[in-house]
């Protein structure tokens, strides 16, 4: 026969056990409530849009959360536009929409139904390069080349913006014609990161094109 077990119920032990049981019950109840009350999608989850890419209308059906970048790369197989940070910080995904440069990773595809979109594939091909593409080759404006499509897209628009009189943070006299200075170009290209550090040659390529088309 086993000896009797000595046990004394202490007030502290009782309170601790009661509190633990109450907490466990509360957490279980909250988890059940959250599961039961999970919001359901409202409206369609996909949309069909027509993107006019490099002059050609392309109709695609995409999840409403798909970015313009992923629509170009994954749905239309136009992989020249690169995915770098996917947070709008590196500029690798720069393309133009209705003539304005944007970070394609920060824009939803469904926002651009009917818009004119230009990617690096629409600028030029190896046997018929755009002047900016040719200048990047001539000035050795790239190393690994990953950021180059976005750099070229931005570079072309930088020249247009300066000539259109659109000021930047380094523009001095807002009443005078904006000069095509190194400082202006650097400031306007600051959203495009080159991790290889080819900035000096990129600047040379942009300057070359600006002078040739002056």
Derived from helix and strand composition plus strand pairing, the structural class reads alpha+beta
Strand fraction equals 5-15%
Task: Please provide the count of β strands.
Answer: 5
Topology order in helix (H) and strand (E) letters: HEEHEEEHHHHH
Which CATH top level class of the largest domain fits?
Answer: Mainly Alpha
Radius of gyration, in angstroms, nearest whole number? 29 Å
Report the average pLDDT across residues: 90
Low-confidence stretches: none
CATH topology category name of the largest domain: DNA polymerase, domain 1
> For the largest beta sheet, what order do the strands appear in spatially?
2-1-5-3-4
Which descriptors would you attach to this protein?
single chain; 214 residues; alpha+beta; Ubiquitin-like (UB roll); DNA polymerase, domain 1; 2 domains; five-stranded mixed β-sheet; elongated; metal ion binding; Aldehyde oxidoreductase
Topology (SSEs and partners):
Blueprint: H1 11-36, E1 46-53, E2 56-63, H2 68-75, E3 94-97, E4 100-103, E5 116-118, H3 120-123, H4 131-138, H5 148-163, H6 182-188, H7 199-212
Parallel strand pairs: 1-5
Antiparallel strand pairs: 1-2, 3-4, 3-5
Helix pairs in contact: 4-7
Give structural notes.
With 214 residues, the protein is an alpha+beta fold. The protein folds into 2 domains: 46-122, Roll (Ubiquitin-like (UB roll)); 124-212, [2Fe-2S]-binding domain (DNA polymerase, domain 1), CATH 1.10.150. 39% of the residues lie in helices and 13% in strands. It has helices at 11-36, 68-75, 120-123, 131-138, 148-163, 182-188, 199-212, and strands at 46-53, 56-63, 94-97, 100-103, 116-118. The chain has a 5-stranded mixed sheet with strand order 2-1-5-3-4, with helices on both faces. The longest helix is centred in the N-terminal third of the chain and has 26 residues, at 11-36. GO terms for molecular function: 2 iron, 2 sulfur cluster binding; metal ion binding; oxidoreductase activity, acting on the aldehyde or oxo group of donors. Pfam families: Fer2, Fer2_2. Residues 47-123 form the 2Fe-2S ferredoxin-type domain.
């Amino acid at each position: 026969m086993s000896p009797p077990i000595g046990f004394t119920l202490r007030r502290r032990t009782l309170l601790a056990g009661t509190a633990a049981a109450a907490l466990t019950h509360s957490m279980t109840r909250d988890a059940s409530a959250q599961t039961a009350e999970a919001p359901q999608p409202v409206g369609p989850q996909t949309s069909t849009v027509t993107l006019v890419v490099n002059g050609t209308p392309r109709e695609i059906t995409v999840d409403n959360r798909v970015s313009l970048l992923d629509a170009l790369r994954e749905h239309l197989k136009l992989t020249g536009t690169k995915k770098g940070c996917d947070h709008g910080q590196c500029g690798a995904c720069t393309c133009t929409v209705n003539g304005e440069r944007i970070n394609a990773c920060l824009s939803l595809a469904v926002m651009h139904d009917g818009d004119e979109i230009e990617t690096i594939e629409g600028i030029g091909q190896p046997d018929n390069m755009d002047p900016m593409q040719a200048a990047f080759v001539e000035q050795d404006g790239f190393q690994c080349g990953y950021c180059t499509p976005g750099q070229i897209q931005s570079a072309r628009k930088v020249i247009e913006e300066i000539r259109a009189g659109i000021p930047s943070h380094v523009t001095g006299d807002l009443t005078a014609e904006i000069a095509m200075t190194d400082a202006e170009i650097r400031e306007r290209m600051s959203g495009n990161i080159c991790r290889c550090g080819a900035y000096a040659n990129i600047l040379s390529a942009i300057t070359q094109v600006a002078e040739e088309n002056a």
